[in-house]
Amino acid sequence: MYQSKIAGLGSYVPENVVTNDDLSKLMDTNDAWIQERTGIKERRHIKKGDGNTTAVMGVKAAKIAIERAKISKDDIDLIVFATLSPDLYFPGCGVQVQEMLDINTCPALDVRNQCSGFIYALSVADQFIKTGMYKNVLVIGSENHSGGLDFTNRGRSVSVIFGDGAGAAVLTRSNHIGQGILSTHLHSEGKHAMELSLKGPSTLHWVPEIIAENPQGDDIPYYPYMNGQFVFKNAIERFSEVIHEGLKENGLEVKDINMLIPHQANLRISQFIQKKLKLSDDQVFNNIQKYGNTTAASIPIALTEAWEQGKIKDGDVVVLAAFGSGFTWGSAIIEW
Ligand code: UT7
């Protein structure tokens, strides 16, 4: 039995900064409402012509992670790509990354678990390393939200929250048992699937049918729907539940956490969890203020920044936790 560790991290966000005031020019919203309800001050959006796509941003983050892991791209045995905003309906972004990184026929798979996507992808990578099948796995979370949001009044409760960006991690077989990813914990509850969803275009909601059924364009299923308060309530329950589950599995307690990186859904959710778990400010890392909610990219972007800022050191207990559409949720307990 082997164990995996994170050997390199990288992140990328588009240069184009979109402030709350910028959004208030497009819809009936304002800086005070957005900051009070979400903590977000600004986010990044891909700008037409800047060359970024979900796969391209993922590659930019991946190149940094590969360099920091001190391996060659040809050492990568598997790519796992998490996103809810792929460039194409099919194939997935994983194979685009394989091609863009010019890696010779390595397997690539896509994970579709929205805000929990990175934790699910990390868990998949960890299992492949634990069994000994692969040595180096590239895990990417990347999102192009701005390409698919409703920037009119109708979409304001959703579109002000989300931002674009990518993060990546190289997982490598660890020689030290007890160091690296200690465990991952995954859950889902499909009965709430429609509470945070995007119905189409899909095989049930195909484009010509959508147009035929909605000639006035007033019930458009190809923008995300979110039952915000219901999602919020479930999130705060599931976040703390799955963090406790992970700690218990490893004989750890809340006081042992050196750094919690929660999925950056809403600063109010992170603060609620922090209060519930009685964690100090330096035990929790948030950067949603700068980037908004970048779904599958939010944890690897935050993890990369925390590491770059020297907030994660060897031997630290690092906890990752996420909740989102599905509903799906999960945690990862890491000894750095
Ligand atoms: O990452 C995936 C998981 N997602 C989440 O965890 C998100 C969880 N949910 C949330 O973060 C919050 O529910 C939101 C930030 C989405 C919304 O905050 P809220 O406090 O639940 O607001 P609300 O939807 O109940 O709306 C309150 C009021 C409404 O007006 P009335 O009916 O009280 O007059 C909305 O129409 O705020 C209005 N509103 C806005 N006003 C200004 C909704 N969106 C906006 C806006 N600007 N952008």
Q: Order the strands across the largest sheet as they lie in space.
A: 1-7-6-4-5
Mean pLDDT: 96
Name every ligand kind in the structure: oxa(dethia)-CoA
What's the helical proportion of residues? Answer: 25-40%
CATH superfamily of the largest domain: Thiolase/Chalcone synthase
- Unreliable segments (pLDDT under 50, ≥5 consecutive)? none
Output the helix-strand order.
EEHHEHEHEHEHEEEHEHEHHHEE
Give the termini separation: 19 Å
**In terms of structural class, how would the helical and strand content be classed?**
alpha/beta
* Percent of residues in β-strands: 15-25%
Key features?
336 residues; alpha/beta; Peroxisomal Thiolase, Chain A, domain 1; 2 domains; 4-stranded mixed β-sheet; 11 helices; globular; binds oxa(dethia)-CoA
Question: Your description of this structure?
Answer:
The protein is of the alpha/beta class. The protein has two domains: 3-178, Thiolase/Chalcone synthase (Peroxisomal Thiolase, Chain A, domain 1, 3-Layer(aba) Sandwich), CATH 3.40.47.10; 181-285 and 292-335, 3-Layer(aba) Sandwich (Peroxisomal Thiolase, Chain A, domain 1), CATH 3.40.47. Helix content is 32%, strand content 23%. The protein has eleven helices and 13 strands. The strands form four sheets. It has a five-stranded mixed sheet with strand order 1-7-6-4-5, with helices on both faces. The protein has a four-stranded mixed sheet with strand order 8-13-12-11, with helices on both faces. Helix 3 (54-68) crosses helix 4 (93-100) and helix 8 (228-249) packs across helix 9. The longest helix has 22 residues, at 228-249. The model has no long low-confidence stretch (mean pLDDT 96). It binds oxa(dethia)-CoA.
